[in-house]
Amino acid sequence: MPSANPFPLERGQLLQAYRTMRTIREFEERLHVDFGRGDIPGFVHLYAGEEAAATGIMMHLGDGDRIASTHRGHGHCIAKGVDVVEMMKEIYGRKGGACNGKGGSMHIADLSKGMMGANGILGAGAPLVCGAAVAAKFRKKGEVAISFVGDGASNQGMFLESLNLAAVWNLPAIFVVENNGYAESTSRDYGVAVDSYVDRAAGFGLPGVTVDGTDFFAVYEAAGEIIKRAREGGGPALLECKMIRFYGHFEGDAQTYRGPGELDDIRANQDCLKKFAAAVTGAGVIAQTELNAVDKEAQSLIERAVKEAKAAPLPTAADLTTDVYVSY
Amino acid sequence: MASRTPTIGIIANPASARDIRRVVANANNLQTADRVNIVLRVLTALASQGVEHVLMMPDKSGVRALLARALKREHNLQHRFPRVEFLDLEPTSTVEDTFQAARMMQAAHVSAIVVLGGDGTHRAVVRECSDIPIAGLSTGTNNAFPEMREPTITALAVALYANGRIAPAEALVPNKLLEVAITGHAGRGQKQPAVRRDVALVDAVISTERFTGARALWRPESLAAVYLTFADPQAIGLSAIGGLLQPLGRRDPGGLALQLSEDPQQRRLMVNAPIAPGLVRAVGIAHMEPMVAGRPFVVTQEAGVVALDGERELAFDGADRVTITLREDAFPTVDVARCMQVAARDGLFRLPSRSH
Q1: Domain that holds residue A140
Q2: Which residues in chain B touch residue A6, judged by CB atoms under 8 angstroms apart?
Q3: Are B220 and B282 in contact (CB under 8 A)?
Q4: B7-175+331-345 belongs to which CATH class?
Q5: Beta-strand relationship, B311-316 and B304-308
Q6: Residue A318 located in a structural domain
Q7: What is the pLDDT of residue B189?
Q8: DSSP per residue over B28-51, as a string?
């Protein structure tokens, strides 16, 4: 029986993909618990269940490639390499956080990693990415810029304007629609006039591709082609990842809009981590014990992040007026 | 003869023409609104021939929602349509929806199924329901199986067959398919080895890639073998490799098997073939032979993926035995061209020239 690795990634990269997805999952599951206890200020929107999309895309990117995230941005941050302890501190509103505890969950940014920020304004990442893509075009280093939006935010005018601008200027901009089926609590069947995001891209002359966003390898392969094309001057494209979220729109959402048994079904049958683990262990490339070790590693990291976050001081009144303007 | 009050099934795959080939090869994108327009034209044509009931596959990707809006509009305009009933299935937005819809339409005894999709969608319908005639409408990326034709005409032919105005002997035509069987080792506690079975309508291709990933096939270097039910020189897709070397009609007996190789020592000839829309690539041929119906071909590659009608579906490795068998007279399709010729011959569309 051939033991050759059938996947388009080396063993170490496969383990890294799993580590990233598992870290995101642990991060979000822990926030679910800690937010419910009242430990965390503000709002959190969890990415659990959607890990394959962020990971499959970000594995093609370097620090020079920029992304603009959404209100559901923790997964994008982790996959883009933002420090997990700094993220946790930020969400806990503590000094030493990614934005010194003044931004919270929806404003985590780390420009050194090409992470331009989560964003509480729906669809607002798309025009930012057009700017980053213009810069990348001028720099001529083959960098790309990627905007993530949800299915609901893709109805925003600025998203559609961005598709137009990116097409007109042939920008190395990629628009990822993370289609989890619900705009907050509104089913896309109700709230979206033409329910294909690929159609929207076609309306502006951009190629669009739909993939199963719960299948890491499907996302990885499609994203790889789209990103390569953009790096080589092929211009913008849209990638629709059909996916599911394990939790509500926000923590505290009673999810009365879900169908009966829907949550049980997606946990049992559409868990991207389970699919990934089954694929790599089934092919004999990675042993379950190795994945278990990664699980423990991720748990320890999150445990440490929470401990350090809780121990970190809160910002003071004097911090209120710092970081307001940045000198370039 | 079919019932005089026939029900027609419509399976409109909302996900066809959405894959990576739009990026790597500028393949077409048929917008959801156009898919719905096609369904509306089919409904109009069916209504004109007295079909009153249509069963449709539901989806969560826009076809149902957009069609519901369009039907309301058409109702306001007092346009005549059959009653459209959606199957009672919960869409998963995967090929399972097509499988289940085909089974449910079979159970509901529809007279025929109109299929909107590419080769992959038609495969999915036939896999689950090979005894009900299908009529294909080409709305996918790679369309070798469904013929390019205005949907209004296809629907008229379907209605003529379904309401019994053209007999099955003239309206229907048999088709070939490829049966794929992958036999693994018996697992612990199992007496019989597990067997995975599937079908292909045009091509079963062995790719050296071993993961399904983005599913489409577009890298010629990954192609190891191609098995074909027919090989039309003007077809698009992997069947063109055979079609440009040894054409074989879809009604001719037999199939065609080709072993491919990029190795100059092994390949005997090269062909430049349109292996996907927008992709013309050089392919090396090591061996080519006819397939006789019923004789299994054993796949010699040790590991890879079997792609069925252009999509990576079944991964296998050295523990598996993969066979591919051609079957003739495997499933019926509505022969639209012949139906319309018969309609002309028998005056089925003629109206009285003056009222009495």
Answers
A1: 11-308
A2: 209-211, 303, 315, 317
A3: yes
A4: alpha beta
A5: antiparallel
A6: no
A7: 66
A8: ----HHHHHHHHHHHHHHHHHTT-
Q: How confident is the model at residue A196 (pLDDT cuts 50, 70, 90)?
A: confident
pLDDT band at A324, cuts 50/70/90?
A: confident
Nearest to B126 by CA among B151, B150, B145: B145
Question: How many domains, chain A?
Answer: 1
Interface test with B, best of A195, A212, A226, A266 (most B CBs within 10 A): A195
| Mode of pairing for the β-strands spanning A186-187 and A182-183 | antiparallel
Q: In this structure, are strands B223-228 and B255-260 parallel, antiparallel, or unpaired?
A: antiparallel
Distance CA A30, CA B78 (A): 57
CA-nearest of B226, B276, B233, B225 to B118 is: B276
Domains of chain B: which residue ranges? Answer: 7-175+331-345, 177-330
**Secondary structure class of B53 (helix, strand, coil):** strand
Closest CA to B145 of B173, B166, B109, B169: B173
- Asked, for residue A286, whether it belongs to a domain, the answer is yes
For residues A39 and A256, give the distance between their C-alpha atoms in angstroms, rounded to a whole number.
Answer: 25
Residue ranges of chain B whose CB lies within 8 Å of a chain A CB = 14-15, 18-20, 22-24, 26, 29, 31-33, 60-62, 64-66, 90, 93-94, 209-215, 302-303, 315, 317-319
Find the distance separating the first CA and the last CA of chain A, reported in whole Å.
59
List pLDDT tens digits, range A43-94.
899 999 999 999 999 999 999 999 999 999 999 999 999 999 999 999 999 9
Could B29 and A194 be called an inter-chain contact, meaning their C-beta atoms sit closer than 8 Å?
no
Phi, psi of A79 (to 5 degrees): -65, -25
Q: Is the alpha carbon torsion for B289, B138, B273, B277 positive or negative? A: negative
- Is B268 buried (19+), middle (13-18) or exposed (0-12) by CB count in 10 A? exposed
Give B99's contacts (C-beta < 8 A, 6+ positions apart). Answer: B124, B127, B128
Backbone angles phi, psi at B344, to 5 degrees: -70, -45
Dihedral of CA B329/B334/B340/B346: which sign? Answer: positive
Mean pLDDT in each 10-residue stretch from start to end of chain B (356 residues)? 76 86 84 93 96 95 90 89 96 91 98 95 96 94 89 98 97 98 77 88 92 82 94 93 96 97 93 92 96 96 91 89 97 98 97 78
Domain CATH for A185: 3.40.50.970
The whole-angstrom separation of Cα B258 and Cα A200 is: 40
The pTM of the whole model exceeds 0.90: no
List, as own/partner pairs, every contact residues B228-234 make where C-beta atoms lie below 8 angstroms and the sequence separation is at least 24, other chains included: B228/B202, B228/B203, B228/B255, B228/B256, B228/B257, B228/B258, B228/B291, B229/B175, B229/B176, B229/B177, B229/B178, B229/B200, B229/B201, B229/B202, B229/B203, B229/B255, B229/B326, B230/B176, B230/B202, B230/B255, B231/B256, B232/B144
What is the reported pLDDT for B1? Answer: 46
Q: A152: alpha, beta or left, given left = phi > 0 and alpha = psi -120 to 50?
A: alpha
SS3 A259: coil
- The CATH code for residues B177-330 is 2.60.200
Can you tell me the distance from the alpha carbon of B138 to that of A8, in angstroms, rounded to the nearest whole number?
Answer: 32
For residue A4, tell me if it sits in a domain: no
pLDDT at A328: 63
User: Residue A260's CB: how many other CB atoms inside 10 A?
Assistant: 7
Looking at the domain assignment, is residue A154 inside a domain? Answer: yes
- Please judge whether A198 and B18 are an interchain contact, meaning their C-beta atoms are less than 8 angstroms apart: yes
Q: In whole angstroms, what is the distance from residue A242 CA to residue A211 CA? A: 6
Please provide the DSSP assignment of B144-210 as one string.
SSSPP--HHHHHHHHHHHHTTSS-HHHHEEEEEEEEEEEE-PPPTT-SSPPEEEEEESSEEEEES--
